[in-house]
Amino acid sequence: MPVLGHLKTIHPCLPSRAKTRSHGGVPVQRRCKGSRSAAGDILGWFVGPVSATTLPTGSTALSTAYSAPRTRPNCGDTYIVPVARVHEIGTALRLVSVLLYAAWAHALTEQTGPLVHVEAFNTHVFIVNSLKIARELFEKRSLVYSSRPWVPMFELTELTDFVVGQPYGEEWRWHRRTMDKQFRRESAKLYRSIHTQKIHAFLRRLNDHPEDFAAHVRALPGATIMSTVYGYDVPEYTQDRFIEVAEEYNRRVTVSFTPGAQIVDFFPFLRHFPAWVPGCGFQKSAQEIRALKDEVKNQPFGYALEHKALVKMLEEAQAGTDDEMEMLRRVSGVSYSAASDTTVSALMTFFLAMALYPAIQRKAQTEIDDLLGAPGGKFPTFEHKASLPYVEAVLREVLCWRPVLPLSVPHATSAEDDYGGYFIPKETTVVMNIWALTHEESTYGSDPNAFNPDRFLKPDGTLLEANHTSLAFGLGPRICPGRFYAEDVLWLTFVSVLAFFDIGKAMTTEGVESEVDAANPPYSDTTISHPLPFKCSIKPRSTVVKDLLGGVSLQE
Ligand code: HEM
């Protein structure tokens, strides 16, 4: 079989300029003595840098790699990986994408160095695995490290309409200021009555149909954000056009932007070719995504203006110029995409963790019961937040144990830089490995892989000062603007579910608890990582709870 390409992973530290040859301004390292020939079997190749078991399936690449034991590669080794035994180019490109993920996954383990360089098809990616370096690059040197990589599919699908895809510069600043204004800590508090209303409706659905908990979880963040941004109430239990389009947009964007998923990612000149040219089917896909994006941006915004919804963000739109109106359309348009899937992931991790760690669930419930009385007596509210440190610790641990975006959203350099004597060229992709940062033993203790909220508490049960949660939202000027909002939705959902329900492992048909590996439950290897579908048992904690939630009137 022909060899179609090479993927090099360089482990685990960057070469200094003095020690390496330079190729196109980028350091090149010596080849590892143990490298095998280009005719090698692809599985055989990965015995070295990446676990062989991660490769053929792809879908389990990250989760497998988290646990796969492996030996530490020698500092400075270069692994040349042949992409062989591949029958057609599409498969080859997908495979390269899997290889990239697998290489990144490898970087997730503590055996690698604090900074890893991966190169594929002349694309250079630096992965930051240490909090110290992350703070240095993304915070102290934020002028250089706050842009986004240029990806042909971003351009073709006009992702740069949205703040998340915009390069660092004036337009991004303008969008970002508006976003920050609407979602900063104080503003986020204004949306708490919306959260309360939507979360109470969610509890009622959970009570009525616990077996459909995943569907209820999926609906909740969308309902809160649509109400917050557009004053639009998503109808319950029925198909909704705004939600359908936004979900379809999210799905298409996720699939299309998997690294290497499109041939145009490797051969950018193809973006100038029309869709009918063989191999340019990505053009049709890009056109469909553009149409969905326009719908996401325009339709609910039109609704809000038509109904004169006095939503905070849109108050300014009434008197805005055309440019300001377009900016508001975009800023509100990105909110659903950014808020929904991310929050769903964290909510699902919560249900999973509670099913897997019953003692922790009991401890949180005891704290709540001590404050509110017997289950079903009272609804928890934001007023109770400061008195429930253990619940807050559960929230922090959910976000750190299985970070929603394990590799964040890629950054890019807007100028060349030297770090620790190593050269990082302009327009290099730089990935903040949130997973590695939230599993650093020096910060999180000796067993960072266990679900253990106590790591955020002092011996007297009060919370540690440092807000570790924020790492799950990134660092520096591109830190998630929706973090306060998201934390509010998550906190009230967690505390309410714990107050009213017991979550346990699902029973098999034989009546025994189904087995899940508590230390390493399977997750998807997508940019936003989700627990793979699982079942659990959800039961009201008392008949009082059942009656309370079954009642027609729910507290606002
Ligand atoms: C659990 C929920 C969430 C998590 C874990 C999360 C995490 C993140 C992360 C890691 C980034 C990338 C930061 C970077 O590039 O360094 C990000 C960006 C972003 N998030 Fe969130 N997010 C969540 C919810 C939300 C919500 C609710 C909103 C809006 C209301 C939001 C809006 C955004 C936007 C607009 C960006 C792009 C910022 C920029 O490029 O300047 N996110 N988020």
From TrEMBL:
Coiled coil: none annotated. Heme binds at C480. It comes from the Eukaryota. Belongs to the cytochrome P450 family. This is Cytochrome P450. Pfam families: p450. The keyword Iron applies. Keywords: Heme, Iron, Metal-binding, Monooxygenase, Oxidoreductase. Its cofactor is heme. GO terms for molecular function: heme binding; iron ion binding; monooxygenase activity; oxidoreductase activity, acting on paired donors, with incorporation or reduction of molecular oxygen. Pathway: Secondary metabolite biosynthesis.
